[in-house]
Amino acid sequence: MLGFLFLINISQTNSIANRWLGMFYLGLACSFSQLFIYRAELFQNFPLLIHLLELPAWATLPCFYLAVIKFTGRTVNKKRFLIHFIPFFSFLVFSILYIMPFLMGSVQTTPEIPFWLGTFIRYFFTGQLIFYWLLSYQTLSDHKKNLLRVASSIEDVNLKWLKNFLVASLVMILVKIIPIEGRLNSIIPLVYFAGMLVLAYYSIRQQSIHPIELVTSDSLSREPNEKEAWERLEADQVEELRRKVIRITMQQNLYLDPSLTLPALSRATEISVQDLSYVLNKGIKKNFYQFINELRVEEAKILLLSDKVKTLDMLGIATHAGFNSKTTFNTTFKKLTGLTPSQFQKLPSSAIANG
Q1: Which residues form the domain of 312?
Q2: Residue 197 and residue 241 share a domain
Q3: 198-247: per-residue pLDDT in tens?
Q4: Are 208 and 227 found together in one domain?
């Protein structure tokens, strides 16, 4: 059902990513169906069906990884990514030539498989689980780091739901890998069922990918290259641009815009995106996210000590300071000041004056 819903993209968001996620769910459905037939001891009655259900398993995890790639907005080299599907196509060709004819009663000589290859195939899927889980987690971690370089608000685009998705899938992977005997073995189906409910919850409640994804280009997906930047910018140029960035950002109150991005600041300051990123990191010693949100916290401090606090609640203070949620406001404020906004507001004037 989940596979079908995501293949037709019922949510009408993130269409390409969701279709790959739908392929992942269909492959998972085949694996669970195969597991059910084995547990019901019906495998001798349906040998061909067992094998047909085995085929999608070889492509299931690459489909999930490609979904993660698409959700993060990264570009995909199609020829390079086909490498991930080599095991699936190899197994498909081998099945068409040898296994399927044999299962259908045709006289067919199956080539003898070396012991090492048989062992490799036996543990290949488990290895795939671990490999693609780590690869997907690393991709999401890199995605968040990239967002901090280009976005001032990341709550709607940090794909936290997908990380929760990975955590739930990790539990299911551990259940598969760790040998469980006795009565505990009987609860494995319940664990799988609960895991699928969690996966369904997070994938169905996903948020649409905002245009901010489009600015996480390859040129910003890594730390600024110091050698390349210094070939363009001398030390005095960096200092001059640093002052310009701070002046324009403060004078025009750009930081109060919750949707402010690095490209938007680049246009306002007339500094290229690459040079601006370098100036922030090397001249101001902060990434874009830190730079803008520290200014927002300073604005919130002023509001908390002004007469406006009489007519604004904490959400109002957060909004006026440029934050797009109360939770982010509280978290960022406490991280930078060591106090919650309410605690800061209650401080005596002498304590505030002394820093």
Answers
A1: 222-353
A2: no
A3: 888 888 877 665 545 445 444 444 554 544 545 567 888 899 999 999 99
A4: no
